[in-house]
Structures are given as C-alpha cells and as structure tokens.
Specification:
Blueprint lengths: L4 H18 L11 H8 L3 H13 L3 E4 L3 E4 L8 H20 L7 H20 L2 H17 L4 H22 L9 H12 L3 H10 L9
Antiparallel strand pairs: 1-2
Length: 214
C-alpha cells in the first residue's frame, strides 16, 4: 500500500532518530549529507527536508548553511513542566468557550475560522508539518479570540511559542501525537451552531496520545 506524504515524513523522522541512536551520535556530530540520507532512507528530497524541519523544530538537530545538519540532542525530554503548558492551553480554551456569545460573531469571522481549519487539514494531508502545526495552533487561538476576552487572548499568545516547541517534539516521535481532525471539524460545527456544551465536550477530547492523555 502506498504511504501518503504525512506517513512517509513521520517514518523518515523515526528512521533518522534510529540512525542517531544506532550510530551513537552525540551533540555536535553531523548527519550524513542530504543525498546520502535520501539513499539511506529511500525517500525523496521533499520528504527528507520535511522530516529535517520537524527535527529542527524539536531541537533534535540544527541545519546550518554550509555546514550541514548538526545534532543538538539525541534524546527527547518532555518534562512535566512542558506538559503544564498543554494543560494551560486547555484551561484557556475551556474558559473561552464558556464566554463565547455566538450571536455577536460576524459571518466574516466564521469564514476566517473555517479557512484556518481547512488550511490546517490541508497541510496535514500534504505532510507539511511545519504549516500544519502553525494553522492548528492558529485555529485554537482563533477559537479563544471568539470570546472577546483580551486577557485570555493575551495569555494564549504568551504560550504560543512554547506550545509550538512542545508539539513539535511530540510530532517528531511518531505514535505519540493524535491529530484528531474529525474532532476539530466537529468543534467548529458545534461552536457555530451555538451548542457550547457539546463544543466543550469535544474540546476535552482533544489532546495527545501520550502517558494516558487522549
């Protein structure tokens, strides 16, 4: 069965991590050249570059112009403090959902939210994980903004970069990340229909398949 681009990217990320582990590479060591890795992992240039992007955002490697790809860390370190960032995101979103007044939301705002969701799903399907994460977080940020609570919006903005780094690390470890696209689609529908209780229920189901999280 032919693998889609997203699956190939995740598989390549996993293969690079395994290569780092098997060859006992440490901080400061270099990965093989792009051409060598394309042959080693039997993938095309675009898939390899997407996998390297994920590892760059995860602080596992660093790509330096003219020097190649350097190992920054060979181990994942998803700490309790990092998980608290995710918990904080959920808390902000829960409060925002409770404060949303659907009757005050313009059609233009709904269209912008829908467009963000469509782009999130599009980039996920294409395997463009950098833009997928960006639009996934922007989708959640837009939902928070629907509450028109300046404090909640500012709070979400303050943790945005930390969330991006945290989710990038999880995404770089295939099997630990749940994309939950269907739930994201349902969340939009329930909010637009004014069924906030159901929207809260759906939002509570969104999360990460890691250490007991959904």
């Amino acid at each position: 069965m032919k693998l889609n681009k997203m699956t190939l990217t995740n598989k390549t990320v996993n293969n690079i991590e395994q290569y780092i582990s098997d060859n006992h590479l440490k901080k400061g060591d270099k990965l093989p050249t792009e051409k060598e890795m394309m042959q080693l992992f039997n993938v095309g240039r675009s898939t390899l570059r997407e996998a390297i992007k994920v590892l760059n955002y995860s602080d596992i490697v660093e790509s330096i112009q003219g020097k190649g790809t350097i190992i920054k860390s060979s181990l994942f370190d998803i700490t309790k403090s990092q998980r608290k960032i995710r918990d904080l995101q959920k808390m902000i979103e829960l409060q925002a959902l409770k404060e949303i007044d659907v009757s005050s939301i313009t059609e233009e705002t709904w269209l912008n939210l829908k467009e963000t969701l469509i782009l999130r799903n599009k980039y996920l399907e294409e395997g463009d994980m950098q833009n997928y994460l960006k639009f996934d977080l922007n989708y959640h940020k837009s939902i928070v903004d629907l509450a028109e609570n300046a404090f909640l919006s500012k709070w979400f903005n303050e943790i945005y970069d930390l969330l991006f780094t945290y989710l990038s690390k999880l995404l770089a470890e295939p099997g630990n990340y749940a994309h939950n696209t269907e739930l994201h689609n349902e969340l939009y529908i329930y909010i637009k229909n004014g069924d906030i209780d159901k929207a809260i229920e759906i939002n509570n189901q969104l999360g990460l398949n890691i250490e007991g999280e959904i």
